[in-house]
Predict the 3D structure of the following.
Amino acid sequence: MRSRLISAVLIILGIASGLVGNYSNSTPSSSKLLPPSFAFAIWGVIYFTGLFLAVQLLRAKVQPEGVGVILISIGYFLSGLWIRVDGHPVAVAVIAVATLASNISAIYFLNKTQFESTFLNLISTFPGWITIATALVIADAFKISTSSDAIVAIYLGASLAVAFVLYKFFAPLYGYLGTITWGTFSLTFSKSSLGTPGFLVSLTAFALSIVLLIAKWQRRNSLKSNF
């Protein structure tokens, strides 16, 4: 019971911190890797799923010994801490990397459990978005996002390649890949991207993610038809 309670509290604290963050005072960004505001609507799905998990933990519907549950709870807590250090790029980058490591590890372990498929796909939107966000805050912390268009494009390509590697080996789920698709779509059609080499990079990644989603869907249907 104690493990469930701690995990639920970590999730709730993280979500509460994110919801009451002082976003209105954020400094205008000159980043060339800036998603449009609609992209952040994904947090609605992430927070809803987190609250559902917290309720299930309090109702003793989730195994307390599951390391994946503990790690995803830590991920939610760290995401709430993230907004508390806004304005300190290096601190944000460090917390972002820690959040990503926690979330990717969580999904890796949860994917080996008997978690219900729909819920697991929903919860995997969290590490999916954190993968994109971590790349962007690292770019800001080390001033890559304000470098030349060529450097920005190379960095973006490398970051998205990492995202696809994580999908392949750690988070082979619709939710994760779907969120990468959402992220690359938003980066492709952001004002800071249009007319730059980064546009072609993000557009290519968006197209690849669509192809991977279709291939995954076809494999699933093929497996069903064999039973």
Remarks:
- The chain has nine helices and no strands.
- The first helix runs from residue 2 to 19.
- Residues 2 and 64 are 8 Å apart (CA to CA).
- The radius of gyration is 18 Å.
